[in-house]
Model the fold of this input.
Amino acid sequence: MVLIGTLAPGSAAAQGFGVYEQGTCVMARAGAAVAQGCDDGSSIYFNPAHIAGAQGTTVSLGATLIDANGDFTYDSVAEAPGGVREVELQNDPVPVPHGYVTYGLNDRSGIGLGLYVPFGLETVWPQEVADGRTFDGAFEGYDNRVQSIYVQPTIGYQVTPRLRVGGGPILAVSTVELNQLVDLSQTPTVEGGPRFGELGVPFHTAFAQAKLEGSNELGFGANIGASYRISDRFTLGARFTTPIKVEYSGDASFEQIDTNLTVPADLTQGGQVLLPAGTPLDAALAPQFSEEGRLSEQGVETEITFPFQLVAGVSVQATERLLLLADYQLTGWSAFDEIPIDFEKATDTVREENYDNTHAVRLGAEYDVLDPLTARIGYLYNTAAEPDAVVTPLLPENDRNQFTLGVGWRPVETLEVNVSYHLLQQNSRRGRVRSELPGEPISTDLNQGLYEFGANLFGTTLTLYL
Amino acid sequence: MKPNHLLRRLTAGLAALLVLALPFVTGCEDGSLNEPQVQNDLFTSYVSLGNSITAGFQANGISSTTQQESYAVQLADQMGTSFSIPELRAPGCPPPVQNILTGARPSGTTGETCNLRSRPLPLSVNNVAVPGAKVIDALSNDDEASSANALTQFLLGGRTQVNAAADADPTFASVWLGNNDVLGAAIAGNTDLITPQETFEAQYTNVLDSLEAAGAEGGVLASVTNVTFVPQLITGDAFAAAENQINQFGQSTAAQNPEATWGSFSVNSNCISGDPSSAVRASFQYAFSGLFAIALTGQDVELDCEDNRPLGAIYSNLPLEQIGVSDAVAAQSILTPAETGQVVSAVEGYNNFIQDQADNRGWAYVDVNNALGALYAAGTDTPQDPSDDLVPKFPQLNSVTEAGVSTFGRFFSEDGVHPTGDTHEVVTNLFIAAINQEYGTSLEPIEAPDVPTP
Done:
């Protein structure tokens, strides 16, 4: 668990911040596997019913390296800090691991244990763009991570010669981390008092770095599936993964950043001087970071619901060597409607996300070139989870076209190596680099520029058939 | 259905899915990706620097309503560019007076009332002008000569105008600075307060260099106003002509105030010159917040146009502070013809330099004094009939009793210094004409009152 906990998923390669690359063989088919899975044990995730056909012991271990790239380009009429209009995503390539063990109990049943990361997100943006000018998006989050590792014991059973079912409980182990700048203009001068912005402090004046993290919190759910073989050539399949809600209880820390603003004239109220001319604002703010201050180290709570997945598909053994597959997937991203952040001392916030359910079509094909060598290709299209009004630096997502290819090589009976490549192309999308302000409706009027996003994914899985 | 038939149909179905997916693969034209457009790239980000006029200060106050009337806002509208102002919530900070003679402000407010900035806050501030600003204030809030005040905090958050303008990444700037480098001297009757020409030039150059360094590719510079066209400064002739009117007003004011006793207000004959160019001037504040207030305590006061001492020195025998005469007013004296000449000369010096700067940098130049002079002169050919003066040469004291009458007329607000919304419209068209001429743009003029042309 410690090992896995250090491996963070990269930016999402499926809808929302879903990660569908949980096995290299299936990845090469664009994820189409619900009607007919690969033999590497990944069916624990893609359709547990297929575990019913397991023979002997199978052990798979692999990872997908996600190399995401993207940028945000300010509209020409939008104020770009320092005149820098294009700001690039700074993600490093991130490996996403998977591991499966299956065991065939008899001709009709099998068991297994899977460990995979179906939800993950990492977005890294710069804090500054030029001459000390702050990137607006850093106030939304400049280094954000969400990962949810699913551990799933599984059993599959062949009910009839045509019908197989399977399923298992899921233990989700999840970590979330958000690093962001804190805007003084939106901060109350005193509890219930005017905000600093009402005293003229400019929008997006950074006066603190906030780090919020909650680690290894648990959630529970289940993954079930069924497949029905219509004939020797046709098989239907379906899977349902339940939504899993994870509640995080973690830590929040704040580090003061100098604004270098000075009060230019006596600020008075009722004839009494509240802040004399020449007072450095930073000195006036410093007590907030002291041990008793509202921005001292403190507890923080939040929760995220990882959405359900409903997948149905068909496989067609078109020829002796050619297999065609098609899956449709519905993902319940509407459950991700907001992120409440409750601080022990600081002001609570709620980030409105308002995601939509998403739809995906996965088309895959594999061809046995030689007995030990199989080639695979695939194409995937999915709709976006984020509505037009909430495309933010947290996840600049859109409808996506994705292309895959790969090969599986089984040089000996007991060993198989799969490698695959996945190209993620995303349509450009208008979005914003700021939150809505108090009293400001969330709408596309807030959008300030254009997001570009894409990724290259490389997968490798090593499978032992014992 | 035979298996091979089903196979063919399913294979065809998969192929159809692939065909349907093709539009997504190849991408498509998406109108939702289009960004808002501005009329001309030059105006992509317009910032306005200035003082109270540009900020939208009127009638000794400022609020979101008066801020919206600024020529800078109307100019930005014609440019079709996004332009954010640091709006102060109604009724303002402080709320504008409804009548300068009574000092009345909106119900429940005083001159100390200060409502803070409106929410939601703008993402940036394009109108960075601050009331009271001299040229030095665009550069520094803590210079000895700076006039930084509470509005510098509330409008700019402690930044200077130049810093705030740079934060807005300007492509185009308007600068109307310099009025307060002479106005304070004229009102106080103290020419020592005039910013020296060399200092003015150095500071003004610094402002323009900073704007260009921040990215401004063009701009428009406005001339410093000839303060003798401002009705706050009243000629001795006008005082002499209004002597009876002042005393009648004093008596009626005292009659309505049981604590007041009207003395008398006389105007020495040395105030009559018959020639505006050699006229002595006194400010409205000197006359009404000073002499008139003293006369309301039963004293006999006289406007002596040859006594150039500060009011506090002339009436050193009286407890002026108790009477309600502020230190600032007590420090004021009349503006002699020689001092007026110094003020006018300083304005001409400033404006020659500003015009040179505009020429050298390829920026537009607006001479507001031609239009202002024509406005001020309208009606002066019938000196016996002040009713046709577009700019009253003496405050209209009947504004206290007659609805719809403004103390300083249609074109100056109740403080006698700052233009009304009508004047801002006229000024907007002056800016538009100058910009179109310099840059060959086609900004449309706005609807504005008909005013005399120079």
About this structure: Chain B touches chain A through 54 residues (CB under 8 Å). The first helix of chain B runs from residue 3 to 26. Confidence is low (pLDDT under 50) at residues 17-29 of chain B.
